[in-house]
Design the sequence.
């Protein structure tokens, strides 16, 4: 009896499967033009994307990277004006950003921002540096710290401090102390001596072998010896 019921259940399942298959076949037969047309369109779109990537995007990226070389050389030499605006023959970072944008690589925004800062264009520096979103922790920290420097130059001290803090958190030991010192000095400018002292003591405790660490006692002593208000 149990075997008969099992067989009946199997028949019902088989019938349901056949019904589903029949429904799928019917749907395909009724809509095969649309289905094949859609698949064909997807194939064409995929081929167009591959062609665009290979014949337009990749050559443009290679061209952008080539244009970067003279500007990077000027940057390394400290010729920030030429690095930013070019020399009449080679493009500067500002022109490269306009011409190629991110095709030149994420670092182009950081280069442009630092050059803008070094040539006194602080608002422009902030705008460029905010576009940089590279993953390298050292470069990311430098971009954050440079935003802090630009804000300090604009006398927006309260806005600058968090950027130095973030930079110190992103940097490795070699640079973190520099950014912490900037944060401390900026806090002193704001009259926030206790907060500044915290940054200085962090340098002393965590980065004693850094350049800043060797000299940090004078900053700590200066605050601790201030007369109470």
Sequence:
């Amino acid at each position: 009896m149990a075997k008969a019921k099992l067989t009946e259940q199997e028949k019902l399942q088989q019938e349901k499967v056949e019904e589903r298959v029949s429904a799928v076949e019917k749907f395909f037969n009724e809509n095969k033009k649309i289905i094949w047309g859609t698949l064909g369109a997807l194939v064409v779109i995929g081929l167009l994307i591959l062609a665009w990537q290979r014949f337009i995007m990749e050559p443009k990226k290679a061209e952008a990277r080539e244009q970067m070389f003279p500007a990077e050389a000027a940057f390394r030499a400290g010729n920030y004006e030429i690095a930013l605006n070019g020399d009449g023959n080679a493009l500067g970072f500002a022109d490269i950003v306009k011409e190629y944008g991110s095709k030149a690589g994420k670092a182009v925004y950081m280069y442009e921002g630092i050059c803008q800062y070094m040539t006194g264009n602080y608002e422009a520096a902030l705008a460029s540096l905010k576009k940089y979103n590279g993953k390298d922790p050292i470069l990311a920290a430098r971009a954050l710290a440079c935003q802090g420097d630009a804000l300090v130059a604009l006398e927006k001290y309260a806005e600058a401090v968090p950027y130095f803090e973030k930079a110190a958190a992103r940097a490795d030991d070699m640079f973190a102390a520099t950014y912490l010192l900037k944060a401390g000095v900026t806090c002193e400018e704001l009259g926030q001596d206790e907060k500044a002292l915290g940054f200085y003591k962090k340098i002393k405790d965590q980065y004693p072998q850094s350049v800043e660490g060797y000299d940090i006692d004078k900053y700590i002593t200066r605050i601790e010896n201030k007369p109470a208000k």
Notes: Residues 47-53 have pLDDT under 50 and may be disordered. The chain has two domains: 60-134, 137-229. The domain at 60-134 is CATH 1.25.40 (Serine Threonine Protein Phosphatase 5, Tetratricopeptide repeat). The first helix runs from residue 2 to 76.
